[in-house]
Amino acid sequence: MRFVDEFRDPEIITRTCEEIRRLADPGRHYRIMEVCGGHTHAIYRFGLKDVLPPNIEFIHGPGCPVCVLPMGRIDDGLELGKQDGVIFAAFGDMMRVPGAHGSPLERKAAGMDVRIVYSPSDALKLARANPDKHVMFFAIGFETTAPSTALTLMRARAEGIRNFSVFCNHVTIIPALRAILDSPDMRLDAFVGPGHVSTVIGCRPYEWIARDEGRPIVVSGFEPLDLLQSVVMLLRQMQDGRTEVENQYARVVPWEGNRAALAAMAEVFELRPFFEWRGLGFISQSALRIRDAYADWDAERIFDVPGIRVTDPKAAQCGEVLKGVLKPVQCKLFGRECTPEHPIGALMVSSEGSCAAYYNYEHRKAAAASLAPV
Amino acid sequence: MAHGAGGKATRRLIDGLFAPLLLDGAQLADAAGIEVDGTRIAVTTDGFVVTPVTFPGGSIGELAVNGTLNDLAVSGAKAVALLATFVLEAGLPADVLEAEVRAMANAARAAGVPIVGGDTKVVEHGKTDRMYITTTGIGRMLPGVVIDPASVAVGDRILLSGPIGDHGITILLARGELDLEAQLRSDTRWVFPLVEALAGAAAPGLRWMRDPTRGGVATSLNELALDCGLSIHIAEERIPVRDEVRGACELLGLDPLHIANEGQFLAVVAAGHAEQALAAVRAVPGGEEAVLIGEVRAEPAAAVLVTTRYGGTRIVDMLVGDPLPRIC
Q1: In 3D, which of B194, B205, B201, B203 has the Cα closest to residue B161?
Q2: Residue B144 neighbours by CB under 8 Å, 6+ apart
Q3: Three-state SS for B260?
Q4: 3-state class of A295 per DSSP?
Q5: Which residues are bridge partners to B140 per DSSP?
Q6: Across-strand partners of A57?
């Protein structure tokens, strides 16, 4: 398959791993944060830890939109969605995320009208097809998905579709990175920058990380070779004493980002003064809300939002795991009370969450005596 | 809902409720083995719920026959007869019903197995999703075949009958929610001719078989790993996956190992019999793409491990609930 197989070529992977071994100082431990949940998933999915030297450690970052959403927002969305005549539409990613009284999928089984959509425009299509119902799209995601929500709202306004609204939970990646770098227990050497987010925002927004924080950052693709090449680029920077923003994913990510997508976002959204992140707490100017011009399609203004606050169980250490202070397995609940079937923290829900990825792909492997090829 | 998706929750429901109360702790397989006057008989039953009712390559009626025949086949039994029960939604168009009954008749005739009886219930509109079909099959065990996960030993080989994921991805696309199109058909078929050839060539070395339907290859192999307490190691590059299935999985963030199949089976064969078994399956029309995908090892116990060509490994668990696409 084009654009996939060439990035999984065993020979090139082996050569790249050899280069990583040459570049890495054996006396040093490297802590590299992959910001994006898609990278976390790929690292486990492709078993990259097995091919990297042990002194290169990936720390899993906050870039999993489902994981950082506080449970109260899910409950708010479900409360609005369960009103008579409302269709609750969301991405498949959201369907298993537990609210205080069950996940969207459990609510669907109990009779609530919950639909899985593959894009916000599919939710708008639902609204056109069900003129006697109100379709509320539960929007999540970083800058990756925010432009498509924005374009859908622009379409809804242009067509005058009034039985459609968006419950906006879009967040932005840069303030979360700032919160992590500001955290006193943060110990990171370098960053693998998010791939999909950067297709929209470009590489410039990361310059402060290199310039002010002195950390190299390489924006990376999602195939095994992308990630390994990004590690090579980071190690070279560290060896040369450089701290720069580099773009490994140039085949997809333009340095300046996608201007049309950014313009759509600017047209529809504005920054919220602050927003709560699960595990990280309130972060100022870290999330998007719908501008006044689109108020008629803003579920938070059309409906009374209950404003539910749910405190995460004290024993769950999602925040520490999100910031990279703890490994998933070091959380007291990991694999015991908290499993992919019965997730307590959201990191266990999404397959991009570091706990679920670790549980699904890594857990129990440690026991393997021999991992020789079959 | 997850309790019906064939993965972990289904297993817990069976182990926690059905087995202790109904089955007296009997061992669970695709079909139950009983002995009648010295003849080894296999009995199985399966309920079929599919949306949409017809899809490229098959339909619910054809699935209802072949699904149950396949459960008998992978239990090492040659089907003798089938029973069919219909639960129909009031208002179901007569031509839809007739088409499915014809599909059942054709599938049964092709396999040479008579449908000897059944039952029909009609429920109010809205109380079912068009039609549910339950089929029960009875079969005679093939001579010399004993399917028992406890007999699986370190060093045994894993055989897979052909490419995976065709059925599950076809159904996903046929629901029309995705705006994705592919030239793909369900793999639904009767697998007994392949199983019979395998048993004929390697019966003394044949330990275990299963058809990886809901929950896919990953779930079937995890069930095996749990039942035998050993480790199943499979090599990712040896697992045949069509480009259409791979492409859809890459786009949607799904793992082909979790996608349902309706015309494939997995077998564990002693190492000394593996090559004969493979050659026998490949010699049957429709078995040309069979492969040996891995082997049984001791560690990590009760787990399935996938290895990649470049040396990466990952644990593959059972599916929890239905596979859901990842978007954001």
Answers
A1: B194
A2: B199, B203, B204
A3: coil
A4: helix
A5: B41, B78
A6: A31
Q: Which long-range contacts (CB under 8 A, 24 or more apart) does A125-132 make?
A: A126/A87, A126/A89, A127/A156, A127/A161, A127/A163, A127/A164, A128/A161, A130/A87, A130/A163, A131/A163, A132/A85, A132/A163
- Token pair for residue B48? 């079929």
Q: How far is A150 from chain B (nearest CA, A)?
A: 15
> Strand B39-48 and strand B131-141: pairing?
antiparallel
Interface of A with B in 28-87 (CB under 8 A): 41, 44-51, 65-66
Q: What is the DSSP letter of A44?
A: H
- Residue pair A9/A225 in contact by the 8 Å Cβ criterion: yes
Q: Which residues of A touch B300 (CB under 8 A)?
A: 364-368
Structural domain spans, chain A: 1-309, 318-361
- Does the beta carbon of B193 lie under 8 angstroms from any beta carbon of chain A? no
For Cα atoms B234, B239, B245, give the angle at the middle one, nearest 5 degrees.
135
What is the per-residue pLDDT across A96-136, written as a single tens digit (0 to 9) for each?
Answer: 888 888 899 999 999 999 999 989 999 999 999 999 999 99
In sequence order, the 6+-apart residues with CB closer than 8 A to the CB of A238 are: A30, A189, A190, A216
Share of chain A above pLDDT 70, in %: 97
Q: How far is Cα of residue A198 from the mean position of the Cα atoms in its chain?
A: 12
CATH fold for the domain made of A1-309: Rossmann fold (3.40.50)
User: What domains can be seen in chain B, in order of their start residue?
Assistant: 31-141 (3.30.1330.10), 149-315 (3.90.650.10)
Task: Report residue B40 as tokens.
Answer: 């080894």
Q: Tokens standing for B290? A: 């069979």
- Is A368 within 8 Å of B1 when comparing Cβ atoms? no
C-beta pairs of B29-32 under 8 Å, 24+ apart in sequence: B29/B75, B29/B147, B30/B71, B30/B72, B30/B74, B30/B75, B30/B210, B30/B211, B31/B71, B31/B72, B31/B75, B31/B77, B31/B137, B31/B139
Q: How confident is the model at residue A366 (pLDDT cuts 50, 70, 90)?
A: low
ipTM confidence: 0.79
Tell me if residue B227 falls in helix, strand or coil. helix
Please name which of A92, A373, A335, A341 lies closest in space to residue B318, comparing C-alpha atoms: A341
List CB contacts (< 8 A) between B309 and chain A.
Answer: 10, 373
Q: Quick check: A312 pLDDT over 80?
A: no
- The distance of A353 to chain B (nearest Cα, Å) reads 12
CB A216 within 8 A of CB A237: yes
Name the residue with tokens 């590690």: A231
Interchain CB contact of B27 with A (< 8 Å): no
Helices (H), B54-129: 60-74, 94-111
Nearest Cα to Cα of residue B85 among B128, B54, B42: B128
